Amino acid sequence: MLYYMALLLLVLTATFSSPCIDEIVCTLGEGAFGKVVECIDHSNDGTRVALKIIKNLERYREAALSEVEVLEHLNSQDEFKKCSCVRMLDWFNYHGHICIVFELLGLSTFDFLKENGFLPFTVDQIRHMAYQICKAVLYVHQNKLTHTDLKPENILFVNSEYDMEYNAKMKRDERTLKNLDVKVVDFGNATYDHEHHTSVVSTRHYRAPEVILELGWNQSCDVWSLGCILIEYYLGLTLFQTHDSKEHLAMMERVLGPIPGHMLQKTRKRRFVHHDRLDWDEHSASGRYVRKHCKPLKQYMSAKSSDHDQLFDLIQKMMEFDPSKRMTLEEAIRHPFFDPLKERKNERWA
């Protein structure tokens, strides 16, 4: 504990270019909350760890303490470390800065996509990653929690080392990961079933329709987010590229069909509705933008095969408008898309 507190003092007061601070390797990320740095833990045989340092502001401090509580619970229930949720190693409060020590992981799936020129993952890669993510989030749900902020940035590779190959057809270098194991991170907004549910959750592009319509939400909003993530892995790009709620709903309709009338009837967002339908002008500039950038879901398929069919069937069931009809993660992990993984596992044990 004293080691980390001393290290934090260095992080807060020194520049990273200082040659005398060899415990701090680099900055892994920065955001409104603070920063994450990679450190060497000399008190533990030189183990490398990630130190998340939260700004000394009440709203960020509260979220950090909530994350600590959630991770203590999740990690304690995962005795054999089978769950693909990030492991918290330690935490402390340094003069109002909540600091959380995590196992060191690799790049986020978003950062890997970005550094690889937004080249989509293959269907087999998606299958391997999606199964782990579904099982991790199912574990979260079984512990009466909703993550509420699932997105490619919050799914990290355990190790993002890769091989580089030249694609002569595309005339570009492409990175191929050596290890597809992933973990879910960032539980600062995770919410227990019994806790107050704020009206708006999730990062915009992964936000479920019931959240936008302020109809209330539950664990099924995580499933919608996962559907958005899987199609992004398949395309290499975000499906719903917008910052406007009504335009977002119009994009959903363009991809998935009409929003159920009973959802539009119940919403308090009356400016979104006209005669129990989405109030949307297809001929406006925004309407033209939606038609240009979105198309029916199945039209995004790049190949006709059972693998692609099954992946899109899984995505479509995850992105069911009505949360009461949306696929659960118990159902998701039993989906035929994941059968090849189970067959390979059985072959290894045969």
Automatic annotation (TrEMBL):
<keyword id="KW-0723">Serine/threonine-protein kinase</keyword>
<dbReference type="InterPro" id="IPR008271">
    <property type="entry name" value="Ser/Thr_kinase_AS"/>
</dbReference>
<feature type="domain" description="Protein kinase">
    <location>
        <begin position="22"/>
        <end position="338"/>
    </location>
</feature>
<keyword id="KW-0067">ATP-binding</keyword>
<dbReference type="GO" id="GO:0043484">
    <property type="term" value="P:regulation of RNA splicing"/>
</dbReference>
<keyword id="KW-0547">Nucleotide-binding</keyword>
<keyword id="KW-0732">Signal</keyword>
<dbReference type="InterPro" id="IPR011009">
    <property type="entry name" value="Kinase-like_dom_sf"/>
</dbReference>
<dbReference type="GO" id="GO:0004713">
    <property type="term" value="F:protein tyrosine kinase activity"/>
</dbReference>
<dbReference type="GO" id="GO:0004712">
    <property type="term" value="F:protein serine/threonine/tyrosine kinase activity"/>
</dbReference>
<dbReference type="GO" id="GO:0005524">
    <property type="term" value="F:ATP binding"/>
</dbReference>
<feature type="binding site">
    <location>
        <position position="52"/>
    </location>
    <ligand>
        <name>ATP</name>
    </ligand>
</feature>
<dbReference type="Pfam" id="PF00069">
    <property type="entry name" value="Pkinase"/>
</dbReference>
<dbReference type="InterPro" id="IPR000719">
    <property type="entry name" value="Prot_kinase_dom"/>
</dbReference>
<dbReference type="GO" id="GO:0005634">
    <property type="term" value="C:nucleus"/>
</dbReference>
<protein>
    <recommendedName>
        <fullName>dual-specificity kinase</fullName>
        <ecNumber>2.7.12.1</ecNumber>
    </recommendedName>
</protein>
<dbReference type="GO" id="GO:0004674">
    <property type="term" value="F:protein serine/threonine kinase activity"/>
</dbReference>
<keyword id="KW-0418">Kinase</keyword>
<dbReference type="InterPro" id="IPR051175">
    <property type="entry name" value="CLK_kinases"/>
</dbReference>
<dbReference type="InterPro" id="IPR017441">
    <property type="entry name" value="Protein_kinase_ATP_BS"/>
</dbReference>
<keyword id="KW-0808">Transferase</keyword>
<comment type="similarity">
    <text>Belongs to the protein kinase superfamily. CMGC Ser/Thr protein kinase family. Lammer subfamily.</text>
</comment>
<feature type="signal peptide">
    <location>
        <begin position="1"/>
        <end position="17"/>
    </location>
</feature>
